[in-house]
Amino acid sequence: MMMIAALVACAVSIVLALIRTGLGPTAFDRILAVNAIGTVIILAIALHGFVMGRPEFIDISILYAVINFIGTFAVLKLFSTGSLGDAKRGDNK
Predict the structure, then answer these.
(1) Mind listing the pLDDT tens digit for each residue in 49-63?
(2) What is the 3 state secondary structure string of the chain?
């Protein structure tokens, strides 16, 4: 019963973050909302693995967390600087 309540809370959190994604005044607000959705999905994967008795879901959620972390920082860097830090050809003499 408690796990069902936790999964329902995750679903409500995702809905609220989706609303924030649509209403965010800036691109950074939208990126933060998408990051929050990713974090809630990580929690939902771990809860689902616990309910089903499959501890390998923890590994999947950790991998998803790393991808979410790197992706968020890459998109934020792209929006703030205009590139991902790669030097253009001919600029690195």
Answers:
(1) 988 899 899 999 999
(2) CHHHHHHHHHHHHHHHHHHHHHHCCCHHHHHHHHHHHHHHHHHHHHHHHHHHCCCHHHHHHHHHHHHHHHHHHHHHHHHHHCCCCCCCCCCCC
